[in-house]
Specification:
The protein is an alpha/beta fold. Helices cover 31% and strands 19% of the residues. It has a single domain, classed as 3-Layer(aba) Sandwich (Adenylosuccinate Synthetase, Chain A, domain 1), CATH 3.40.440. α3 (104-112) packs across α5. The structure holds inosinic acid (IMP) and magnesium ion.
């Protein structure tokens, strides 16, 4: 089984939580990351500890899974090594030899560029590293001496393995192709590109899980319909802060249906995961059975299924990986 998980909104849908649950439950041979690079921030609560990750996939939580970063991802060795230390995963973490190396210069460029100010980038060097790659003057992981210990051919590994779980990063509305250009990240982040990032072709993918949050947030600049003031978001308990940048996220209390329909289509999503249902609908904290959800929450999930025409298989009801309703067996 090869499964891809992608974000259906502006990033920060709670992909980390869903990924960590799937890694524990399904025990994939490999958990691999696609997407842009360390601009992504995932927060994972596992065994009572919070982990803030930017390079490693959230699926690291299963000690039986090998942890890999696909060729399409730009890698910052400093961040990478810190996360291996923090997660105690040394010995089972690998990067593809073709990954782009994020140099200190890329980070400086990202922090300084006028365009970055306009877009509100994460200043992690991702955009400039992608530019270098396109200019054909980037350095690849296979040529970085300090990284040799981790360098392998991820393509071979993921194509050979039986059970592979691939985590995308960012979200549909931040795709350089389909998002709110120019207020987007530097790559396409839909399922086809995430597959290509790790070296899997389209027909090798069995399932695409699109994660959406029960309300909408955006960090950084760009169009954002039905945005509410911070004060109001605080009252609703929707106010969030960026994992990488610490910036307050912008909030829109509703789902943007037309965007989600397009996202589901382009990602060819086969399942939807809805996170933070407990935040949007109080009284659902930590529920693990669908029938125990409040009527309001169930009506909302029915609406998601009806509008998108895709089964809602995973429902997040709290921050811990165990706070989840998993309907995959009954629905697929
Ligand atoms: P960049 O990816 O750092 O170039 O930033 C481009 C835009 O995408 C900015 O608005 C960022 O805030 C946003 N962005 C990049 N990565 C993420 C993410 O993982 N979650 C949410 N927003 C992101
Ligand atoms: Mg994030």
């Amino acid at each position: 089984m090869k499964t891809i998980l992608v974000g259906g909104q502006y990033g920060d849908e709670g992909k980390g939580k869903i990924s960590s649950y799937i890694a524990i439950k399904d025990a994939p041979d490999i958990v691999a990351r696609g997407g842009v690079g360390p601009n992504a921030g995932h927060k994972v609560l596992y065994d009572g500890n919070w982990y803030s990750l930017r390079m490693l996939p959230s699926g690291f939580v299963n000690p039986k899974s090998k942890v890999m970063i696909g060729a399409g991802v730009s890698v910052d060795p400093e961040v990478f090594k810190k996360e291996i230390e923090m997660t105690k995963t040394d010995g089972r973490v690998f990067v593809d030899k073709r990954c782009t190396y994020i140099t200190p210069k890329h980070k400086e460029e990202d922090a300084a560029a006028e365009l970055s100010k306009k877009i509100g980038t994460t200043k992690t060097g991702c955009g400039p590293s992608v530019t270098s790659r396109a200019r054909r003057d980037a350095v690849l992981m296979q040529d970085v001496p300090e990284m040799q210990k981790y360098v392998i051919d991820v393509v071979e590994a993921v194509n050979k393995a039986k059970n592979v779980f691939i985590e995308g990063s960012q979200g549909f509305m931040l795709s350089v192709l389909y998002g709110t250009y120019p207020f987007v990240t530097s790559k396409d982040v839909t399922a086809s590109s995430i597959a290509a990032d790790v070296g899997l072709g389209p027909t090798s993918i069995d399932q695409v899980i699109m994660v959406i949050k029960a309300y909408t947030t955006r960090v950084g600049n760009g169009p954002f319909p039905e945005e509410i003031e911070v004060e109001e978001a605080v009252k609703l308990n929707f106010q969030e802060y960026g994992t990488v940048t610490g910036r307050p996220r912008r909030t829109s209390p509703e789902l943007h249906w037309e965007d989600l329909k397009l996202a589901a289509m382009i990602n060819s999503a086969t399942q939807i995961a809805v996170t933070k249902v407990d935040i949007r609908f109080p009284g659902n904290d930590g529920k693990t059975k669908y029938d125990d959800l409040t009527t309001e929450a169930r009506m909302f999930l029915d609406q998601v299924e009806a509008k998108l025409g895709i089964p809602v298989t995973l429902i997040g009801t709290g921050p811990d990986a165990k706070d989840i309703i998993d309907r995959r067996e009954e629905m697929l």
